[in-house]
Write a structure and sequence with these properties.
Distance between the termini: 45 Å
Helix content: 25-40%
Number of strands: 6
Order of helices and strands: HHEEEEEEH
Radius of gyration: 18 Å
Structural class: alpha+beta
Number of helices: 3
Number of domains: 2
Low-confidence stretches: 1-28
Strand order of the largest sheet: 1-2-3-4-5-6
Length: 144
């Protein structure tokens, strides 16, 4: 680990040792869309939305990417990863993975300069938006 990473780890350990609840706060810090965090069933589909830190660890926790996974009753899966700027929009550099019932997987980075990809994204974005709206509704109902 580099000097900056070591320093960040030492600061985090110091905060956890000195401040009750700092570990919880440190773990929650930096979420862009906590209102969408979800793991449950919506309309017969198993739906998970979570934010992750990329493998290239961001010491400050400022870069997270959102992952929406939708498992259909037939076993097919759609996985949307908003790793560009976690804006909940499918745009350049974001990733889509589609797994068929046979287990075969198609994964690609979005490049909207490709007309076929741009057309696919125009079809998938409303599905993603609808699922996110259902997640918000379910999370809101759970709070009440």
């Amino acid at each position: 680990m580099g000097k900056i990473a070591n320093f960040a780890v030492e600061v985090a350990l110091f905060a956890v040792a000195c401040v009750p609840g700092a570990a919880i706060t440190a773990g929650l810090r930096g979420y862009v869309h906590p209102e969408y965090h979800f793991n449950g069933n919506i309309g017969g589909q198993q739906v998970v939305y979570q934010e992750k830190i990329p493998f290239t660890i961001d010491v400050l926790g400022t870069h997270r990417y959102g992952v929406l996974e939708v498992k259909n009753p037939d076993g097919s899966v759609a996985l949307y990863a908003s790793d560009n700027n976690n804006n909940l929009r499918l745009d350049n550099r974001d990733t889509i993975t589609i797994r068929g019932t046979d287990g075969k997987e198609v994964k690609f980075k979005i490049d909207t300069s490709n007309q076929n990809v741009a057309e696919l994204v125009r079809g998938l974005q409303p599905k993603m938006d609808s699922t996110l709206a259902q997640i918000l509704a379910a999370n809101t109902a759970a709070v009440r």
